[in-house]
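User: Show me a protein chain along with its predicted structure.
Assistant: Here is one chain, sequence first, then C-alpha cells.
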Amino acid sequence: MPNQGTAANVAVAYYNAWTEGRIDDAVALLSEDLVVDAPRAGHVVGAQDYRGVLEEYLGILTGSSLIAAHGDENTALVHYDNETKLVAHAPTTEYLEVSGGKISYIRIIFDRTPFEAARALLASGSEAKP
C-alpha cells in the first residue's frame, strides 16, 4: 500500500508490527531517542517509554485497517482505522520522521471525544460501545 519512499516503508512495517501485537518488532524500528506527541499519552521521549504506551493500547485494540500510507525518504503519513474495546471506529493519522531506517518522531492525531464518552459510559455501569 505505501507509495515509494523509505519512510513510508518503515512506517508501514512499524504499523504492521504493533497492530499485530509484535511489540519487539515495532520497537526495533524506533530510535532510542524517539519523541512521540499524542493526544492521550502526551509528550513521550524514548523508545522504551513509548513501548509501555503501545502495550497499554494493545490491551484495548481489537482490529485495525490500514487506509493509506505515503512518504518520501524522511517523512511519512499513515492513516488507519482502529477498532477497540471502547470505540468501534477510531480513525487515526500518524506523521512519522525516519532517519537511518529508524523512526525518530511520531505525531499521532485522533479524536479523543469518543474514547472519553465510552469511558464515561463504562464508569456509569453501561457497556455500550459508541
